[in-house]
Amino acid sequence: MNWIEEIKTLRAPGQSDASLAADLGVSKQFLSDVLAGRKELSLKLKVTAWKKLGRELSREAALAFLPGKIAKDLQEAHQEVLLGGQDPDALETKNKFDDWTMDLIELRDARGMTDAELAADLNVSAPYLSTVLKGKKKLSWGKKIAVWGLRRYDLSRDTLLSFLPVEVATELIDLDRARGRRRAAKLAAAAKSNRAN
Question: Does pTM top 0.85 for this prediction?
Fold first, then answer.
């Protein structure tokens, strides 16, 4: 998904950059930098644009909500998993939009490790892991990718959404469901109209 092109589709005929920037809640200069590819949209701005676009929340769309480098790293890690002989059908979907704490605990317990051993395995300090396990700090993007690989998750839409903050993932799912209900209502009305004719 190309956010620059998506932002351009939000522009009404004859609408200026300043007006579009105001609609999105950003400065004209920031919008200009985004459209020129010099800056990446923040997660908040991606959600704002998504609400206006009303698009389907597909796997590719969910991937587009991640920062560009993280999305690329995750796709590369996924390719390595597949090239390593992992059966794609054996991968699981991460259905919980949480902070990954339970994944860390389940990973630690399944491997019979201590917190210190898990920290060493993930190449993080024991104090950092402790703060994550206590809910005082969120797991970094890179470490989420490491846990994702160790837990053998797939790269489905729901797994990708779990990389986002819980409130963002939940909002996107709610928006997608509302879009689906509107589409279904239109189809039902059209079918009823066709039967009446």
Answer: no
Longest dimension (CA), the chain: 71
Strand partners, 153: 92
What are the structure tokens assigned to 172, written together?
A: 């996107």
Q: Which domains does the chain have, with CATH numbers?
A: 1-53 (1.10.260), 57-100+138-196 (no CATH)
Phi, psi at 163, each rounded to 5° = -75, -20
User: SS3 of 45, please?
Assistant: helix
Rounded-to-10 torsion of CA 126, 127, 131, 133: 20
3-state SS assignment for residue 89: helix
Give the residue from 91, 102, 111 showing the smallest Cα distance to 160.
Answer: 91
Query: Which pLDDT score, from 0 to 100, does residue 162 have?
Result: 92
Mean pLDDT, range 104-109, rounded to an integer: 94
Give the separation between CA 133 and CA 115, rounded to whole angstroms. Answer: 9
Q: How far apart (Å, rounded) are the C-alpha atoms in residues 71 and 3?
A: 14
DSSP E strand boundaries for 9-93: none
